[in-house]
Amino acid sequence: MSRTVAESEPLMEQETRLSESQPAAAGTVRPGGRTAKVRRAVLEATEDALAATGFHALNMDHVAASAGVGKTTVYRRWGSPVGLVADLLRDMADRSLPASDTGSLAGDLRANAGLVLKTLTDPRMGAVFRAVIAAAACDEECAEALNGFYRARLEEWAPVIKRGAARGEIPPDTDGLELLRAVSAPLYYRFMITREPLGPEHAEQAVRAALTAAGGGVFTRP
Question: In angstroms, rounded to a whole number, what is the distance separating the alpha carbons of residues 212 and 199?
């Protein structure tokens, strides 16, 4: 008979006893084998809980039960709900889709804005992002993890700005990260601050405004 994750936990604990004998910063260990399966189950359960009830109702015991993992493992490995959210953000950064290469800067930025729009308007992922942004607003560890998530995404997309500059579509000394921020910022503002409807027309408007500003040298480095 096959063993469940919970039933395999004693063996998993033996395999990872040295690395987990002291609480580690969430997400600093990249385990394999049974430990990786446990991490995946716990992070999926965390994402489910955030989507359903938000950050402030996130409960370690409930996450452990939903994941089929012993709660002692969850408390030792992640320490707190904040640790769960921080590790989830790092995992989401690792699993994010690569940047597009459409052949034009406008096309690439539209792809970027479309990806942001799809994520924020998805019933499940929109709820997850709203929860982790709320968590980051009240906890420094979550804030650092959220910053790391977006920094990784900006760095992934930075080459599209360099390619656009090489084609002469924008000034060569354009700050790519600032241009990318200008594309997504209006979408996040409507999503998180004003809670206004968010649709394709807003993504297109953000791209056109960012391209116009970049062409005028607004994002050139001093």
Answer: 21
Cut 0.85: pTM above it: no
Residue 73 shares a structural domain with residue 149: no
Judge contact between 126 and 119, C-beta under 8 A.
yes
| Residues across the chain | 222
CATH of the domain at 172: 1.10.357.10
Are residues 105 and 207 part of one domain? yes
Q: What is the dihedral of CA 15, 19, 25, 29, to 10 degrees?
A: -60
Containing structural domain, residue 58: 9-87
Neighbours of 74 (CB within 10 A): 22
Structurally, the chain folds into a number of domains equal to 2
**CATH code of the domain in which 18 resides:** 1.10.10.60
User: Residues 41-71, buried b or exposed e (16+ Cβ, 10 A)?
Assistant: bbbebbbbbbbeebbeebebebbbebbbbbe
The pair phi, psi for residue 4, each rounded to 5°, is -75, 170
* Alpha-helical runs (H) found in 54-139: 60-67, 71-78, 81-95, 105-121, 123-138
pLDDT tens-digit readout, 72-120: 999 999 999 999 999 999 899 888 888 999 999 999 999 999 999 999 9
Same domain membership, residue 156 and residue 67? no
Tokens read off for 120: 């924020």
